[in-house]
Design a protein that fits this description.
single chain, 253 residues, alpha/beta, Rossmann fold, eight-stranded mixed beta sheet, globular
């Protein structure tokens, strides 16, 4: 199964991605959690201890790897380089394992006037395509808002595109934008998870903007989840109620 998770910043998509990854891993599945957000926090959300964060090196910052795979000099512009680099061995070589979850941090590319046509971006896009279309594990991608990362062929390999929303107009507007972008590349099944709900009014508010058939479920606001971030712990280790709600969403998924 390949799941891409997105949503407006701050809605809790990374927390949801982390808990979902831990649940699948605990059930015995091989799980690859991919941090494809330019502001990477998935490893922390999974509970990786602070002292191990230095072990994470985003793929986009592996200059030697990029140079070898694309036959180029990272950061170069206007020079020839390989457009179809080998990426199939990258997940196994560069993943960081924690609690049964393999973590891969993609990183981002500093465009700095050179646009997106550069060796770094070519490698990241090819790797994303490989993870979705060819990797045999459960792959959960924590993405930024939008789906520009996914080409037409790549997007077709995603089993579920989940937008995390909260009961507010701005996050629901992001959902509508993502849904439109998805249709533009042929993805028609966009699902929703309502997060930080406090009462039935919050649920009703979300369902006024989202078809009930597309809503996988709701996660209630939790002080335990908020406090887990301050304690450098995963919400998975701090909030049993949240875990149960995500498990119900997983079963529906």
């Amino acid at each position: 199964m390949k799941i891409a998770i997105t949503g407006k910043g701050g809605v809790g998509k990374t927390t949801f991605a982390a808990i979902l990854s831990r649940i699948y891993a605990e059930e015995g599945y091989r799980v690859l959690a991919v941090d494809a957000d330019p502001d990477p926090n998935l490893a922390l959300a999974l509970g990786l201890p602070e002292e191990r964060l230095d072990e994470i090196v985003p793929i986009s910052e592996m200059k030697k790897l990029i140079m070898e795979r694309t036959n180029s000099t990272p950061g170069s512009f206007g020079k020839m380089f390989k457009m179809n680099p080998r990426v199939d061995d990258i997940p196994e070589k560069y993943c960081l394992e924690y609690k049964g979850v393999n973590i891969l941090t993609m990183g981002t590319v500093d465009m700095g006037g050179m646009g997106c046509f550069c060796p770094e971006n070519v490698l990241l896009k090819k790797l994303t395509s490989h993870l979705i279309l060819q990797n045999k594990d459960i792959v959960i991608l924590d993405m930024e808002a939008g789906i520009e990362h996914l080409g037409r062929g790549t997007a077709g390999g995603v089993d579920a595109f989940i937008v995390v929303v909260e009961p507010g107009i701005r996050s629901l507007q992001t959902y509508k934008q993502v849904k439109k972008l998805a249709k533009d590349i042929g993805v028609n099944k966009i699902l929703v998870v309502g997060n930080k709900v406090r009462n039935e009014d919050d649920k009703t508010y979300i369902l006024e903007e989202v078809e009930s058939i597309d809503c996988l479920g709701f996660i209630h606001y939790s002080d335990d989840v908020i406090n887990s971030d301050r304690l450098y712990k995963s919400s998975y280790d701090c909030s049993k109620n949240t875990i149960m709600e995500v498990k119900r969403i997983k079963e529906k998924l």
